[in-house]
Design goal:
- By secondary structure, the protein is an alpha/beta fold.
- The chain has one domain: Glutaredoxin, CATH 3.40.30.
- Strands 3-5-4-6-7 form a 5-stranded mixed β-sheet. The chain has a two-stranded antiparallel sheet with strand order 1-2.
- The model has no long low-confidence stretch (mean pLDDT 91).
- The protein binds zinc ion (ZN).
- The site of zinc ion (ZN) has 8 residues, from loops.
- Zinc ion (ZN) binds next to loops.
Length: 136
Amino acid sequence: MAEAVACRVCGKTVSDEAQACPHCGQPLPRPNLVVFSDQNFDQEVLKSDKPVLVDFWATWCAPCRMIAPAVEAIADEYLNRAKVGKLNVDENMSVTGRYNIRGIPTLLLFKNGQIQEQVVGATSKEALTKLLDKHL
Ligand SMILES: [Zn+2]
């Protein structure tokens, strides 16, 4: 069944069955990457029985686009061990305000509803791997 996902480049909602974004032509994010929102945050993140890595991003944020492939690779590698996803700060003001997100990209690692780690600014897949491994 087709599900809606957010294009990592332009942020528009597209079907996850498409190979590339019909709006900007970029390849689509991996299906293992969850799209978090004000609506699903409590259920998907705070109540998750696995650690959850949340990438706070925006369509206009160049460093966010730079780290997107690393975050997607982590989502694939840690499938079944951790949940990985992104939250668009412009579309989800409630969660963004709740965690006082001032700069993006910001990555928060949640476990049992609590923030365990916070990374602000560009980062690497290696750094994210190290950070996640501490909490698995
Ligand atoms: Zn797009």
